């Protein structure tokens, strides 16, 4: 079942349950998916839906960091609840050890010699991970390996 169908079903359930927070978040997710499809002038495939949701999740993580720095715990809680709901539709996130294993394979194939080749390594790694790992984590692990 496509993610957009699951979101629509969850939205109906949230509306019937009068869950304002979930309804609001799911409407935002549905709108983002529909806008992306409208931009592409076609239906989204699963990979594109995951990419769209990954973007929304990243935005929530960034907002949480900023609100924490600003001492706005009320907004942190709201964004965290939205992030949790969005993550339900994303593939399970890999643990750091699993990401390291994927990076081992990428490094064995590409054999990068210097930090200048980071872009090439990141492109290959993110293509393999496809929404299963946060780009920040992958970036940190790649930097560490290229420096060390």
TrEMBL record:
- Enumerate the UniProt keywords alphabetically: Transferase
Q: Which Gene3D superfamilies match?
A: 1.10.10.410, Uncharacterised protein YqeY/AIM41 PF09424, N-terminal domain
One Pfam family in the UniProt entry = YqeY
User: Which top-rank group of organisms is this from?
Assistant: Bacteria
| Coiled coil location | none
* MF-aspect GO terms: carbon-nitrogen ligase activity, with glutamine as amido-N-donor; transferase activity
Q: Under which name does UniProt file this protein?
A: Aspartyl-tRNA amidotransferase subunit B
């Amino acid at each position: 079942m496509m993610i957009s169908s699951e979101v629509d079903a969850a939205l109906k359930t949230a509306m019937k349950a009068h869950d304002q927070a979930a309804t609001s978040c799911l409407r935002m997710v549905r709108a983002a998916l529909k806008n992306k499809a409208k931009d592409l002038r076609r239906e989204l495939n699963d990979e594109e839906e995951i990419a769209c949701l990954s973007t929304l999740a990243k935005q929530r993580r960034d907002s949480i960091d900023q609100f924490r720095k600003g001492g706005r715990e009320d907004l942190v809680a709201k964004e965290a609840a939205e992030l949790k709901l969005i993550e339900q539709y994303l593939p399970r996130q890999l643990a750091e050890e699993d990401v390291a294993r994927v990076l081992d394979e990428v490094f064995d194939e590409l054999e990068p010699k210097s930090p200048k080749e980071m872009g090439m390594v990141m492109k290959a790694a993110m293509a393999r991970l496809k929404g299963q790992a946060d780009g920040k984590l992958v970036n940190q692990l790649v930097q560490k390996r290229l420096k060390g």
